[in-house]
Amino acid sequence: MALQVEIWVKSIIEGLFANNTFAARSVDHSEFVNEKTVHVPNAGAAPNVEKNRTVFPASVTERKDVDLIYQMDEFTVDPVRIPHAEQVELSYNKRESVTRQSRRKLAQDIYESIIYNWIPEGVKVVETLGEAVAAHIKEATGNRKRMTKQTVEELQTLFDEQDIPEEGRCILLDARMYNQLLNSLTDAERNGFLVCADPARGVIGKYLGFDFYKRSKVAKVATDGTLKPWSAANAATDCAAGLAWHEDCVSRALGDSLLFDDQGNPLYYGDIISFLQRAGGKSIRADKAGVVLIRQAAAEWWMVNWIIYVIAPIAIALVSWILGKNGRRIDETSKLVALLQEEITRLTAKVEKLEAKVEIKEHESERKSGIIQEAFRCKTPSHKCPVLIKLFEFNDQKEDEQRTKKLQPGEYPPECDQIQGRDEEFRPGL
After folding, report:
1. Model pTM?
2. Is the pLDDT at 302 greater than 50, yes or no?
3. Claim to verify: residue 132 and residue 224 sit in the same structural domain
4. Do 224 and 132 belong to one domain?
5. Could you read off the pLDDT of 188-202 as tens digits, one per residue?
6. In a designed cystine with 247, which of 127, 147, 155, 168 is the match (CB 3.0 to 4.6 A)?
């Protein structure tokens, strides 16, 4: 009989945690982290300006400034006991693993709290505008509208109307909303989006002046628009949400992560470790400008189905009865309704097949986007990266094929103007 050997790997697979690089794009109030309350003065309304003043003396006014305050929070990790036996018997360093895990979990909860602190009560809300897609919040049901570039255009307009500086605008999306946005871009827009990525700062792309950040989850919103903490029970009607902000309109305060270490505790026969960290953050403008909640809108397809399957047949039959008042017309109408319902069923099945194909294409697009993002994380310059070079060649080839297909009889493909360095297009032949 062969000898069976058991091997213990000397390292442990750690848990996964969200990316929190977005928080650096804010006003740093960390110097006040050991204070209880932070006061942020906000200037009052600017004085009136009068052209060609004729009344003297001019009326004297006072500016009423606003004192915006927020509190610091103290986050603590539950103490963890590491038995002496596990420290000497295990192949991996459990103490080191517990320490690293506790620090990461502490950071995750702190940054989730900062996100919610950045969203003031009565914040401006912009809803998504795309076609229907399945809800992705856990336990949520039904459809939601996709995150598309049209929503980013709306955000750009809103920030412009608020006179928000163009430099320093940011958007944070969860993974699903981010991929929905990418799929709404053209190939040229997607390439431009990814070329502007700055992995060192956590920026994964840029579009319409916004630096984009991605996180596994951002915020959760109830049907009435109320923010729900992630610790709250999920509901079928919950919607995912992202966040748009300007870096001068929000703040962060992060203290040191303090380790409390009780080594060789005589009562627990092992080590006990825990962590504490003070932190806080706030939307620091009293007028709430420069912060917008991006909420996935519900797609009310049930109403359409109700009209098609229930109301429409009844209405047709009723109208026919009122106009004709004879059995023959009612019978003909019933047959017509049956035919319409059969056609609706056939089209519904066709739509389901198309949705399945779209889902496959989206998956392929996500894989492609992931590959491209990895290319930008590489130390090789973008203009020398073989992945990006192949991508640009593929897109150019695709555009040439599409342009050739559009040619009508008697037309000729574009010819290159060597002197001007551009395509000189010759259209219908004589």
Report:
1. 0.70
2. no
3. yes
4. yes
5. 999 999 999 998 899
6. 168
